[in-house]
Amino acid sequence: MDRPWTVERRLREAAPHEIFEVLRSTIERDHHARAVELLMADYAMTKLQPVGRLPHTRAPLSVYESAPGRAFGAQEPYCVPDAAAAAVTVHLPVSVRGDRLGVLSVTLPDEDGEGPAPAVIEELEECADALAHELVVAERDTDLFLQARRAERLTLAAEMQWQLLPGRSCSRPEYALGAQLEPAYAIFGDSFDWSASADELYLTVNNGMGEGIDAALLTNLAVSALRNARRAGLALHDQAYLADQAIYGQHQGTQYLSALLLRFHLPTGEVEIIDAGSPRIWRVREGAVELIELEAQLPLGMFEDTVYEPQRFTVAPGDRLLFISDGVYDALSPVGEKYSLHALVNSINETRLLPAAQVPRAILQALLGHRGSGPAADDALVMCLDWTGRQAGH
For residues 348 and 363, is the Cβ–Cβ distance under 8 A? Predict the structure, then answer.
């Protein structure tokens, strides 16, 4: 097998739309693989879509009820032997910095029935990791992998929103993050953003008013203004002020956006937060679920020259924070029954053993069971943050 840096160099030198084909040919040559397939997680995180030339691709597989889905969920290689074919298929997660992109499936000869050697699995894992990094870069220059993620067509508003997001999960030694939006293919107003430096993590959770393109444009304006202020090094209250002025200047108070703005100090767990008419925060600490009460301030863009005052609290190692939008609380069943806080707390408890990246999808699945298959009346957003904290000496 080529050294990892050789594989990485080949992927970097390949045209963006050819990176998987280059990896496929490398694995087939070095390991005599019978088949190599890349499956991308769809926008709803419920299916794994084979990458191929549309429309000539295989049917998608379930994230929950398939062998590749098992590797995707556990984020570990999963081997499936086939004694009749004297082969074994190794399913490997394709992820970068905690962001789960898909699964690489490699079918290898297995004449003796003992499965692949640990060194072979390690080499294939290195290939999957190299592919994940190149996929993130390639998506700037080709639509191939973005198209593969689509189980159905996105609305224009949803296209705008998904392009705005930083990812759907990420992790560092101090924390793990996961977030999901619904309806995934028709989202319009809800959004989230994050950015980390050596000692700080910034999070924003947004709930824009309106529907369709108008809501997507409002959210794009707000997120761009917040990023502009953050990247200029402004304090959290100044970030809120700048975004507030940008939205008010464009809409004169006729449109506004509810938001949570947070800054986490990674060494200490101290949190600075501004609640601008926002989604709510739940904390799970030592098994107890509680709503964090905050002083609600005006939404961004409602009035001119609004002054925002940060509040503070501290997260402890082992804490889980959940950020949940109104589209979850206000969801109605087919007979008009609102999704209750009791049902939400039950859902939070039922997902307590899942990693942060899987929690939003699981909570939204429970919500879908309550709401039924009809069209959603509002967007729904769930973000989960698991806090580990910084270890001494790091």
Answer: yes
What is the three-state SS of 229-297? HHHCCCCHHHHHHHHHHHHHHHHCCCCCEEEEEEEEECCCCEEEEEEECCCEEEEEECCEEEECCCCCC
Segment holding 88, helix H or strand E: strand 87-96
Output the CA torsion sign for 275, 281, 286, 288: positive
Burial of 214 (0-12, 13-18, 19+ CB in 10 A): middle
pLDDT above 90 coverage of the chain, percent: 79
Question: Where do we find the tokens 């529907």?
Answer: 211
* SS3 state at 127: helix
The residues with which 180 forms a beta bridge, in sequence order, are: 382
The pair of three-digit structure tokens given for residue 93, joined into one six-digit string: 């997660």
How many whole angstroms separate alpha carbon 60 and alpha carbon 58? 6
Q: Are the beta carbons of 98 and 88 closer than 8 angstroms?
A: no
Q: For 284-334, what is each residue's pLDDT tens digit?
A: 999 999 999 999 999 999 999 999 999 999 999 999 999 998 877 766 666
Are residues 327 and 378 in contact, defined by beta-carbon separation less than 8 angstroms? yes
Strand (E) or helix (H) holding 116: none
Cβ neighbour number for residue 128 with a 10 Å cutoff? 23
